[in-house]
Amino acid sequence: MKVRRGPRSGLPVVVAIHSRALGPAAGGIRLRRYPDWRDGLADALRLSEAMTAKNAAAGLDFGGGKTVIALGPDTEVTPSLREAALLDAGELIESFEGTYFGGPDVGTGPDDMVVVRRSTSRVFCLPPEHGGTGSSSIPTALGVFASLRAGARHVFGSAELTGRTVVISGLGSVGALVAQHVAAAGARVLVSDVDPAKRASGYEWVDPEKALRTPADIVVPAAVGGVLSAELVPELSAPLVVGPANNQLTSEAVADELAARGIVWVPDFIASAGGAVYTLLREVEGVPHEEANARVEAIGATVSAVLDSARDKGTTPLREARARVAARLA
Ligand code: PHE
């Protein structure tokens, strides 16, 4: 791990590499506000570990890493500060000499990667006109939708979403696309976001504090992590929780509490792997679009396998998924 005060931006930049057991580390560049920059450091460490699990469980030959650019609670993000911070991040990434590759994440997108590219070539998801495969949110959402249908088949006996109520907590770049998929499949979609301007999305709205507790068939955590806690579990009413947010559980024990209540939770590092799968296959292995998309859709089969074997063995989906990761890393 390296931590620097960016020479151009003055902002703390962290690159954390958790594992290179399967190959070079890969994971996005997060640009986010933190109460204290050390919270950003802790986030980078947790997120890099989640990337190890994500890439391993998805069968990718990549390790786990993450970059965090930590904005303060009151940092004013002008375009020039943003550019400076992205150049700083690229410079730090370049110092890893190809053992870590970055890409977009919460707070960044393909256009930002064009800026990062000025400091390092080790960056994915540039817009197509710059030679990349563009937004990873599109395949991430596709993988979440495949996971959601697999979860529905497991819990309700059918992947059919017509007539089901689905709550999407977080209408960011991935959450908004998941909402589109789910609405197109005929479900009633309720959304929430900490940004009240997202009410204009036109979907039914729920308060962000109440979103996960809303009576529904499926709840989709699609914002930042740390939302499923021991305190929240008794208040959940949906029998299926599946979404793209990284590190949804406040601790691993929450998975046991969810299972004890009969709630099926699809491990986040499995459901959210679509962006990594598509991007790494396309940009590193040169796999064609259709084939890469098929690999993203296959996340649904992984979800089915994990949920079925967890049920058969009397364990939780998290333990089952962790065992699969450990087997790959061994
Ligand atoms: N940041 C996204 C994730 O956490 C997508 C991504 C994966 C981007 C791997 C780059 C490399 O999965």
UniProtKB/TrEMBL annotation:
<dbReference type="InterPro" id="IPR046346">
    <property type="entry name" value="Aminoacid_DH-like_N_sf"/>
</dbReference>
<dbReference type="InterPro" id="IPR015878">
    <property type="entry name" value="Ado_hCys_hydrolase_NAD-bd"/>
</dbReference>
<protein>
    <submittedName>
        <fullName>Glutamate dehydrogenase/leucine dehydrogenase</fullName>
    </submittedName>
</protein>
<keyword id="KW-0520">NAD</keyword>
<dbReference type="GO" id="GO:0016639">
    <property type="term" value="F:oxidoreductase activity, acting on the CH-NH2 group of donors, NAD or NADP as acceptor"/>
</dbReference>
<keyword id="KW-0560">Oxidoreductase</keyword>
<dbReference type="InterPro" id="IPR006095">
    <property type="entry name" value="Glu/Leu/Phe/Val/Trp_DH"/>
</dbReference>
<dbReference type="InterPro" id="IPR006096">
    <property type="entry name" value="Glu/Leu/Phe/Val/Trp_DH_C"/>
</dbReference>
<feature type="binding site">
    <location>
        <begin position="170"/>
        <end position="175"/>
    </location>
    <ligand>
        <name>NAD(+)</name>
    </ligand>
</feature>
<dbReference type="InterPro" id="IPR036291">
    <property type="entry name" value="NAD(P)-bd_dom_sf"/>
</dbReference>
<keyword id="KW-0547">Nucleotide-binding</keyword>
<dbReference type="InterPro" id="IPR016211">
    <property type="entry name" value="Glu/Phe/Leu/Val/Trp_DH_bac/arc"/>
</dbReference>
<feature type="domain" description="S-adenosyl-L-homocysteine hydrolase NAD binding">
    <location>
        <begin position="132"/>
        <end position="296"/>
    </location>
</feature>
<comment type="similarity">
    <text>Belongs to the Glu/Leu/Phe/Val dehydrogenases family.</text>
</comment>
<feature type="domain" description="Glutamate/phenylalanine/leucine/valine/L-tryptophan dehydrogenase C-terminal">
    <location>
        <begin position="137"/>
        <end position="328"/>
    </location>
</feature>
<dbReference type="InterPro" id="IPR006097">
    <property type="entry name" value="Glu/Leu/Phe/Val/Trp_DH_dimer"/>
</dbReference>
<dbReference type="Pfam" id="PF00208">
    <property type="entry name" value="ELFV_dehydrog"/>
</dbReference>
<dbReference type="GO" id="GO:0006520">
    <property type="term" value="P:amino acid metabolic process"/>
</dbReference>
<feature type="active site" description="Proton donor/acceptor">
    <location>
        <position position="66"/>
    </location>
</feature>
<dbReference type="Pfam" id="PF02812">
    <property type="entry name" value="ELFV_dehydrog_N"/>
</dbReference>
<dbReference type="GO" id="GO:0000166">
    <property type="term" value="F:nucleotide binding"/>
</dbReference>
